[in-house]
Amino acid sequence: MKAAEKYRRVFGSISHLKDQLSWTIGLTNMVEFLAWEPQRILGITKKQYVRQIIEWVAHPDMKDKNIEEIEQSVIKKLNTKMHESEQLETYSTQTTGICNAREAVRRVKFFSEDYLNKEFDIFLSLCSDVYLDSFYQQFITFEPSGLWSTHGNSGIFEFSAELKAMYMDNLAYNHQANVLIANELKLAGRKNPDQILKYCVMYEHLLEKGFIDKGAKFLLLFIGGNALKHNKQTLVDRELALCHKRPKKYQHLLRPELLEIVDHLQVASITWSALIEFNQRYLAENEVSQVEQKLLQGFHQSLKAKSFMHLDV
After folding, report:
1. pTM of the predicted model, to two decimals?
2. Cα–Cα–Cα angle for 211, 216, 219, rounded to 5 degrees
3. Which whole number is the average pLDDT over 175-186?
4. CB of 281 within 8 A of CB of 225?
5. pLDDT digits over 246-267, tens only?
């Protein structure tokens, strides 16, 4: 049985992006993130962790010691390593090395883009349709109607859509308005050199698999520490130039069918600071429930605590 089949058998699947998923899936996605990247907990990769312990056990000093003595020696060395790597300043740039639980949480909470992605998954899944209409109408025109469904980069999405060409961050889809939004999240990093074309591959794949309807409007929205400095055409031209330099590697991104999707795609960007400002205006200008008020304000608090918001620290 293939991995995709095993996953769908245990956790279920979706057949269309209009399928609604519980916000609790965001918690499952968080566990998946940590399970697939144990270095976020250990402080180094699992392979490095195992190798380190083997080296300690294989050291000549361990030759005549019994299992209990070896165990105590390894535990002592691990504790020493964890003590050496622990940081007592919130935004210390030291984020590598075997660590204890407190240090692991510091690294992901303030420095991890992947962790931010999972926070955003939960945030977006709990936002009202009215909020999502208002937010996305800043960047793309559509008739505000229908329910929004959101999908993070989870096993359910990956193994349902069977999209292997790329990894997305988060999708928001309005079936009735026939609008697809790809939210590409960054801390303070830049757009990947082939990212727009890869998102067009994703759109093509979702259309072929029947996960979105024909003619769906498509917006690629970058949310990050900085706004995009160039317009869509300039960005696409640079990506195409890169692909033409290495045609064997990027031939799947140079197909005429894909370039038609490029023409159809809209690209926009907003900074995290501007997102917070929009949310504050939204709260001031609309009557919202106490739950949504807490949701927006709580997300603001988390964003303001990220390391990239404190670059001068």
Report:
1. 0.93
2. 105
3. 97
4. no
5. 998 998 899 999 999 999 999 9
